Amino acid sequence: MGEKEKSLLREYFELIVETAVFVFFVVTFVVQAFRIPTGSMIPKLLIGDFVLVNKMVYARPVLPLEGLLWPEKPLARKDIIVFKWPGDLTKDYVKRVIGLPGEKVEIRARRLLVNDQLIDEPYTIYLNAPASELSSRDNYGPIFVPPGSLFVMGDNRDDSADSRTWGYVPLANIKGRPWLIYYSYEAQRRASASGGLGDRLKAIPSFLLKARWGRLFKVIN
User: Does residue 61 belong to any structural domain of this protein?
Assistant: First the structure.
């Protein structure tokens, strides 16, 4: 093998190594791919949404220019976050921040009060029972969020296992904030037509047939 071939192989090898290091850095510190498995955040997030999670948004990088390169964003009420579930740290959950450390949280007839102030929640939905048939989850508290913890709930209040069920989320469990839906598909495929159309549909890859094209590359805010 000549010197030219060796030099070319070396360049390819260095490119592969540099790319691998960059991808490892991005996946470890910057973004994470996450699939929405339940309907607890309907209508904002649907079952079958694939999202990119911004892992830097609440981080404080140890860099001289941290305020310029990665402006620190304070955690705020109504933020949607991805976190390690306290009941099993191998599982990631996505919910909305409701109560911050030290705050008083109460739910009265499905209305949220924080520090005795009514909070507007236009994003919530209730599916199962009319307002005349409220459950204990619709009248909750009051409780005080412990230091270093959060009280979180899903937007789909009747179909969400959240802090009303299993307690608080330690701040250390936060992984990031959902940023972008990069792919989405129907959890249940519609019945195929019979005959020639049905045969043609079967030839289409399922990821194309079931895709929700209108949700692709949608920024989550």
Answer: yes
- Active-site residue, from 40, 149, 160, 163: 40
Query: Annotated catalytic residue: which of 55, 73, 78, 95?
Result: 95
Q: Is 132 one of the annotated active-site residues of the chain?
A: no
Of 153, 121, 122, the closest CA to residue 137 belongs to 153
- The model carries a pTM of 0.77
Classify residue 145: in a domain, yes or no: yes
40 is known as an active-site residue: yes
Domain that holds residue 110: 3-185
Residue 116 corresponds to which amino acid? D
Residue 113 predicted with pLDDT over 80: yes
Phi and psi angles of residue 143, each rounded to the nearest 5 degrees, phi first: -130, 160
pLDDT (tens digit per residue) in 156-184: 999 999 999 999 999 999 999 999 999 99
When the pLDDT of each residue in the chain is averaged and rounded to a whole number, the result is 80
